[in-house]
Amino acid sequence: MEAQIRRAQGSLDRYFHAFEEERLREEVCTRRIEELSAELTSLEARRSELAEEMSESEPTVPDPAELAELVRDIERALSDGELPERKAMMQAVVAEIKVRDRGQIQPVFRVPIFGPPYGLVPPGRTERKGRHLPSAFVQVEATFRLGA
User: Fold this and answer.
1) By C-alpha distance, which of 22, 43, 42, 40 is closest to 32?
2) pLDDT tens for residues 49-82?
3) In 3D, which of 111, 96, 91, 3 has the Cα closest to residue 47?
4) Boundaries of every domain in the chain
5) N or C: which terminus of the chain carries fewer CB neighbours within 10 A?
6) What are the distances in angstroms from CA 110 to CA 15, 44, 134, 139, 146?
């Protein structure tokens, strides 16, 4: 949602800049500026709704069955998914990677906490309709020693 808002704001800024530099006539860009302004207003209203829903919700720790399903989804995405899906999955579950030295790395994983509000994100390839989508995350660190 934030990326969509930034894109819309960036587009508006470019149209305004082009108009101010007299590279575009008013009648050429008026309709597009109105469309982008309406889109931006809609996105900002939706962002406010989501923030309000999230502040009213009580997340719960996932049960073992939910965690097992999450692990299966991650494994499937990483083994069978196309490159963009694998990359998105890694970005979703790895918060950061700490390199201590040449022989020790420490990934920090995001573990979802499931709970309301549900359906904040439209179901994609790794989510199923009706499934409780993560509403928050906790971070878990693991330390690995690389072979000598």
Assistant:
1) 40
2) 888 877 776 666 667 887 788 778 878 888 888 8
3) 3
4) 2-56, 64-145
5) C
6) 39, 27, 11, 5, 22
Crossing angle (nearest 10°) for helices 64-80 and 83-93: 140
- Quick one: pLDDT at residue 133? 45
Note the pLDDT of residue 142: 61
pTM as predicted: 0.40
Residues 6+ apart with CB under 8 A from 14: none
Q: Is the dihedral of CA 69, 72, 77, 81 positive or negative?
A: negative
Mean pLDDT of 2-10: 90
To which residue do tokens 């808002």 refer?
A: 5
Beta bridge partners of 144: 105
Per the structure block, which two tokens stand in for 17?
């800049």
Owner of token pair 């991650």: 74
Check: CB of residue 24 under 8 Å from CB of residue 15.
Answer: yes
User: Tokens for 114?
Assistant: 């499931």
Identify the band that residue 124 occupies on the pLDDT scale cut at 50, 70 and 90: very low
- pLDDT for 44 beyond 90: yes
d(Cα 82, Cα 77) in Å, to the nearest integer? 8
